[in-house]
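Bit of a strange request maybe. I'm writing a small parser for structure token strings and I need a real example to test against, not something I typed by hand. Could someone generate the tokens for this chain?
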Amino acid sequence: MIYKIKISEEAALDLDEAYQWYESQISQLGSEFIRVVDKKKFNFDSTKSFGLPYYL
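Reply from user aminoacidic:
Good idea to test on real output. This should exercise your parser:
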């Protein structure tokens, strides 16, 4: 089954803020953070969502 993942506007703003913070700590750490988040988006266990929308 194919699931469509939606990222709310608020979550997108949080991700951008986290990216900026990680980037300010160590160069390229923000990019690594986004890479891990993107990977997690596509590897979530759909059995844990109980049919509810999955928001990241």
